[in-house]
Amino acid sequence: MKNKPSIKWVVDNGLCLGCGVCEDACPSHAIRFVEKHALNVPQVDPVSCINDKGCNLCSRVCPGHGVDFQAKSRQYFGTAPSVDPYIGPYVSCYTGWSNEHEIRYHSASGGLLSHFLIYLLDKKIIDGAVVTRFSESNPLRTQSFIATTRDDILAAKSSKYCPVSLNGMVREVMSFPGKVLIVGLPCHIAGMRKTEALNKKFREKVVGYFAIYCSSNRNFNGLDFLLKKRNVDPKDVKSFSFRDDGCLGSMKIITEDRAISEPFVQYYGKLRSYFKPRRCSFCIDHYGMLADVSFGDIHLAPYFNEIGVNSLVVRNPLFDKYLQQAQTDEYILLQNIPSADVNRSQKMMLKNRNITVPFSLKFERLIGRKVPKYDMPISKVQWLKGARYWFSYTLQGLIGRWFY
Ligand SMILES: Cc1cc2nc3c(=O)[nH]c(=O)nc-3n(C[C@H](O)[C@H](O)[C@H](O)COP(=O)(O)OP(=O)(O)OC[C@H]3O[C@@H](n4cnc5c(N)ncnc54)[C@H](O)[C@@H]3O)c2cc1C
Ligand code: SF4
Ligand code: SF4
Ligand code: SF4
Asked: Residue 301 is part of which domain span?
């Protein structure tokens, strides 16, 4: 190849995660995002693109083709006292929740992430946070923005099991008058970390990164499927939430004349892998190894709780100090737990990491497909089990595509 590859190579080889960071890295404004195959996908304008002059900035910030997790986590958190093969280097692990019932009950898990952001804003440790809400103009599409108030933070609470792209956010952060914290999925944080390595101005504006654990995402067809099964016309939806009312909680759909509420366990499992983006099958970063703090659920006795509860992993000692202060100031509650308990509560993620991902990486490379590259040891391939899972999710993916 004469030119160094641009992100067109990533997209053409099915390795795009839709994170969005390439758009802001492009000096020629040649990238724009479109919805294609129910995903947010970058398109490169060949006329404006200066790849032939040696530019490949979009590819250098792109986490789709691979990430040096080991090198980067050592660079950021190398002095952390403990290391876990899945979590990476870390300072402490906790379980806990927001002390405000309304936040705890209506957030995805225990509302810790949102309430800790509110604490950081109140104490002027940050001036804004990049978060993601369902759009006011289209409640079935997401919109990321810089939240500067408690109301903004709470408008973005809860999980979005559909594509979220942070395109535009790097430029917004750079022109924002103050310090910003960025919240995203592990793949968003990886893209942002690659961006800050090349962009000093951006790096200086960012106070920290919060990740939410992630076992996989869903494309927009997943949303359509949920609505269709309940005879809801997407045009009628006034508001939508995947997780409200308690831990794990319920999906809530509000239309002009109906209000649907359905427990997470009842609708989520049925989504299976029908709408899973291909790139998630190769993901090894379920905890967000490059984030200062990562937040998730904890599906494990004695920690699980109906109102709402989180587990969290802290990698940066400064944020450990802020969390302790937030507890002293009675915003949140924290309790130390062993990392082994965090891992035990994430069975699905670890099954992916130990069985599905190693098989997918090896097998798809063997049949000539492009796969991402990592600098970390990957578990030994379990050929029989791996093949069974691979076949099952590939079939489900085909069924998902066939129906939509
Ligand atoms: C696709 C996906 C898969 C997940 N998989 C797991 C899992 O396997 N195991 C587990 O324990 N937890 C998982 N989580 C995380 C979990 O659902 C909660 O988000 C997390 O526990 C934080 O809860 P909270 O109550 O503290 O957050 P809240 O206070 O509700 O705040 C959540 C924050 O995350 C942001 N956010 C939500 N969805 C997205 C998104 N798609 N992209 C970027 N930002 C987003 C919101 O803007 C908000 O700021 C997943 C979340 C998502 C979106
Ligand atoms: S190669 Fe350079 S100019 Fe072309 S899309 Fe990528 S960043 Fe933009
Ligand atoms: S930077 Fe993100 S959105 Fe752009 S090509 Fe890479 S993975 Fe896709
Ligand atoms: S599984 Fe990995 S690649 Fe897929 S959405 Fe989650 S963090 Fe991103």
From this structure: 69-218+273-347
